[in-house]
Write a structure and sequence with these properties.
- A hairpin with a 2-residue loop joins strand 1 and strand 2.
- By secondary structure, the protein is of the alpha+beta class.
- It is elongated, with a radius of gyration of 19 Å.
- It folds into 2 domains: 1-81, Structural Genomics Hypothetical 15.5 Kd Protein In mrcA-pckA Intergenic Region, Chain A, CATH 3.10.290; 82-121.
- It has helices spanning 3-9, 16-24, 83-102, 110-120, and strands spanning 28-30, 33-34, 46-51, 54-60, 77-79.
- The chain has 4 helices and 5 strands, in the order ααβββββαα.
- The chain has a 5-stranded antiparallel sheet with strand order 2-1-3-4-5.
- The mean pLDDT is 92.
């Protein structure tokens, strides 16, 4: 099975086009190597997907015939990401959620920067 189709069928990506785009932009590894969308997946292969700031890793157990429900995903792959990495990911996601509520989107805009400079005077 093609890797883009596999990661879509086991619900690692919401759409097949997003899975395809992730493969094309070097956010998916198969057994440690970056792959193109047409690369075939075999049982016991390890898939790594970049979720900023970590690489989430999964082991392939079986191939579904079509997209599976969320409850059935565990029979087709197992997540092998370390607990420390998952805690780091959760911490970053919580921080981003809090910043979004506060209205902080990332780098300050030019206007925000000027306001910060006025406060420091």
């Amino acid at each position: 099975m093609r890797i883009d189709k596999y990661i879509w069928t086991v619900r690692l990506f919401k759409t097949r086009s997003l899975a395809n785009k992730a493969c094309s932009s070097d956010k998916v590894k198969l057994n440690g190597d970056f792959v193109k969308t047409s690369k075939s997946v075999a049982i016991n292969d390890e898939i790594a997907i970049k979720t900023i700031p970590i690489w989430r890793t999964f082991k392939v157990l079986d191939f579904p015939k079509s997209r599976v429900g969320a409850k059935l995903v565990s029979s087709y792959l197992v997540e092998t990401t370390s607990k420390d990495d998952l805690l780091q990911l959760e911490h970053i996601q919580n921080l981003n959620r809090k910043n979004k509520v506060l209205g902080i989107k990332g780098r300050p805009t030019k206007k925000d920067r000027r306001n910060l400079d006025q406060l420091n005077r």
